[in-house]
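If your schedule permits, I should be very grateful for your opinion on a structural question. I have a record of one protein: its chain in single-letter code and its fold written as discrete structure tokens. Kindly check, if you would, that the fold set down in the tokens agrees with what the sequence suggests. I remain grateful for any guidance, and I place the record below:

***
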Amino acid sequence: MVEPSGTGRVEEVVMCRWLAYSGEPLRPAELILDTQHSLVAQSLNSPLGAETVNGDGFGFGWYPTDPSPDAVPGIFHSIEPAWHNENLRDLTNTITSPMFLAHVRAAAGPPIQQTNCHPFRHENWLFMHNGFLEGFHLMQRDLRYAVDPSLYPSIVGTTDSETLFYLALTFGLQDDPIAALGRALRFVEETGEKHGVSAPVQGTYAVADGKTLWAFRYSTSHHSRTLFHSAAIPELREMFPDVERLEVFGEHAKVVVSEPLNDTPGAFITVPESTVAVLDESGYHHEPFLADAEAVLTPA
């Protein structure tokens, strides 16, 4: 339990777990269910999480293998624990997807309901978040009023994460995801300062458009929750030529995770603090993210 500076109110800080995949079409069950420390396993026992159990619902979003130009990703949300849902097992074992996101939730105040489950979707964009906006109850009115009026009706849940997504859309997520999320987070920090909240932003964030995956690690205190991505498959095959499981994955397969899916040394690379990992068909690279005192831009 923590008490936000200057708020006079005690708030629970609870974390979630997530993963995102990009690469050749893959059965999502290979990562969500079948790895040593799969996302479903982490929902029951998360060694690196702030909460050991993440059983307050889950979400799964996926892009079709052969999308039409106007295709939107599929979404499946449930308030059941991930380990208890047979539909999740059926879906992830029967579909294939070149890009998918999955999230298990540990609720931190907002109620357990489907509209509060990640990932969130707008047109062809998906977003999910592991973390919190501290003092959100103080900032909520200001943050939501900053959302573009054309987007505001699309907010259907009560979480800080969904509000952050629509702020980022307001700031131009569809044109420049890195700059837009940066502006949204700086706006949250500026708003928090007005309300006496000293460190309002904590988290890791995933943004996807069906072609590119952006994974961010940032918090105001510069001490964010863990985030990793897999090493390149050709490198892993060279390091571990006898591991048959690697044959499941294509040459371009990449996964970003809250914590590693296995204990294999060198299989997962830490995403540094204040960094965005960009994963696309060419591979992956890191860029600094909010590493300086970038000015806040007011929404148009």
In short: Residues 132 and 202 are 5 Å apart (CA to CA). The mean pLDDT is 86.
